[in-house]
Amino acid sequence: MKKLFTMLVASVCCTMAYAQTISVKDVSVAKGGTGQVEVSIANPTDYTAFQFDLTLPAGVSVKENGATLKGTYEEGFNVNGVKDGETSKPRKLEWKLFNESTNTYRFLSYDMGNAALNADGNVVAAISIEVAETAETGDMTGGEMLVVTSDGTGKATETATGKITVNESAKITIGSSGATTYVCDADLDFTDNEDLTAYVIIGKEGSSLWLARVKTVPAGTPIYVKATSGNKGDYYAAKTTLSKIYYQSLLVGNNTDAAVSVTPEGTDQYFFLSTLGFQPFTETRNIGAHKAYVKVPALPAAKAGDAWTLTIGDAGMTTLCVDVDLDFSDQTDVKAYTVMGYDNGSLWIAPVKHVSAGTPLFIQGPKGSYPIKSSAVQTYYTNMLVGNNSEAPITIHPTDGDYTNMFLSTSGFSTFSEDRQTGAHKSYLQVLTSYREAAKTRGHNEGILKFVEAEVIRSLIGGEDDGTTSISRIATEAGNDAWYNLNGQRIDTPTRKGLYIKNGKKVIVR
Asked: Which of 37, 5, 24, 22 is nearest to 155 (CA)?
């Protein structure tokens, strides 16, 4: 590698100044934690190799195997260095600690087949960093940028600066399952966290829970946290200060330093996190300090019916609430959402495929009419929408208690000053008034124009996240005689010969 670094430097030692620029993304990380620095190059000319230096604050280092190429380049080649109509050997990205006294690292990327590359303005490298518990906030400098064009001419560029903000941290201990629940009395930021991914739980469908990823977490919000590596250990999340944000979740948190006893009540369903995923419980059990459990209202009875014709106008969005279970799974142009959170004037919306009758929805899609098929499903989702599941309009007030009501206009959800009507089978939005007022003081207008679509994954109860679950790890819900096929999917009854799961046991149907 030393020879390659030397060769590149030698090839550009007599270069002219050129218009290349390098930029580095600011990063917010936790003491003891990790993060990722993204490096971009603005370069108007094809090149075959580039080199840059990155100086990091004291106490911050590049992780082992911590530098990777990014594939967000201009059309014409990919991350493996393959250009249209050509075959090239893979690109490489190598690095070393170049100057220990200044904590400067040198990075070198080249194409083994000498294919011309161009990443003008795009991210070219992602650098994983580790942050010591003694590290402090400081600047990072990206510079000494060199590129080599196909004719061997090198070009140099100016330096660029970025900032690494080092925050106080919350320690999150992940067990052998690779995940845990957690609730903290401080705001947390997972935006640049390479080790952990945080979720709130937004819904239940049959034997599955639906989880929505969140980057920033207000104090007291219970979350489900996964280790990126899947390994157990102590990890760190950055403590921060957030504006008023909230998410609706089926998780219930114990934000104290002692375990609490939880006794299931009524027809609600309760689940705790075990090494085999979320498991139901029907008797009193302890929930650990700063941990959480899932509480789901009883699912509504299945209510199949005729297909519903959905109409979307010029605005490309509408609301809906009907008295039949709906299935959006075969829709390619139309997307249905519940509203799971409010963030500084924006709405977090969660995509849904199956909804029980009476579920209020926000819908986006091209203008037109769309038949939405009926499907007998049992689902429950958290939701800031309120539905009018009737054949006649209803009157709504500007506020209800602690909430401000908002209706869907052609540009988004808007407030109103006098009573107004919401149409038959439509929905309106309720936002905490104190949060709306806080957003207004930061310059956000009365309407909500921005919608942020959440990334959602599925977690089979008693199984793994986001995918097929092993047969041995499928658990049935309390009092549930449902059948499951080999993919972990719930079915009404076996329709053919084969191996199934019932009451947690393998059953052969002959």
From this structure: 22
